[in-house]
């Protein structure tokens, strides 16, 4: 009699499989979470604007780090909310605080990105509009 193979979370250990799972995770976030799609869209627009306005390499690096900061905080927020929802869909005041704090971290990262965007793009856009 042939045994059926039992799969666990640790069954596959090769690097290619790990990358495939990571890309599936990113695709899931972008495809199923509206805020992640917005972040992705604004990131693309910011990079295009950076090339169009000829920002320096250092400014483009700062822009990239800022984009990643916002995206990572959104992913962590989603992970926290989805994990909590696995255990309880019912309202609880402490769960609300946890979810609000996680969302607040994303809001702080977005606020920081707006400040960075102002310093990188502000004078260039004003100069472009005045010409």
Explain this structure.
The protein has 131 residues and is mainly α. It has one domain: Orthogonal Bundle (Helix Hairpins), CATH 1.10.287. 81% of the residues lie in helices and 0% in strands. It is built from four helices and no strands. The protein has helices at 15-32, 34-52, 57-87, 93-130. α1 (15-32) packs across α2 (34-52) and α2 (34-52) runs antiparallel to α3 (57-87). The longest helix is centred in the C-terminal third of the chain and has 38 residues, at 93-130. The model has no long low-confidence stretch (mean pLDDT 91).
Task: Give the SSE layout.
Elements: H1 15-32, H2 34-52, H3 57-87, H4 93-130
Largest sheet: none
The CATH architecture classification is Orthogonal Bundle
CATH fold topology: Helix Hairpins
User: In total, how many domains does the architecture comprise?
Assistant: 1
Distance between the termini: 81 Å
User: Rounded to an integer, what's the Rg over CA atoms?
Assistant: 20 Å
Q: What average pLDDT do the residues reach?
A: 91
CATH class term: Mainly Alpha
What are the segments in which pLDDT stays under 50 over at least 5 consecutive residues? none
Key structural traits:
mainly alpha, 131 residues, Helix Hairpins
Task: Describe this structure in a few short sentences.
The chain is an all-alpha fold. 81% of the residues lie in helices and 0% in strands. It has a single domain, classed as Helix Hairpins (Orthogonal Bundle), CATH 1.10.287.3610.
């Amino acid at each position: 009699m042939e045994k059926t193979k039992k799969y666990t979370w640790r069954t596959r250990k090769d690097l290619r499989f790990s990358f495939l799972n990571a890309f599936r995770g990113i695709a899931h976030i972008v495809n199923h979470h509206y805020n992640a799609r917005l972040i992705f869209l604004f990131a693309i627009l910011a990079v295009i604007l950076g090339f169009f306005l000829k920002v320096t390499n250092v400014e483009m690096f700062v822009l990239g780090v800022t984009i990643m900061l916002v995206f990572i905080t959104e992913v962590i927020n989603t992970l926290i909310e989805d994990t909590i929802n696995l255990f309880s869909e019912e309202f609880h005041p402490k769960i609300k605080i946890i979810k609000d704090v996680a969302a607040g971290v994303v809001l702080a990262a977005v606020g920081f990105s707006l400040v960075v965007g102002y310093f990188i793009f502000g004078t260039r856009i004003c100069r472009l509009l005045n010409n």
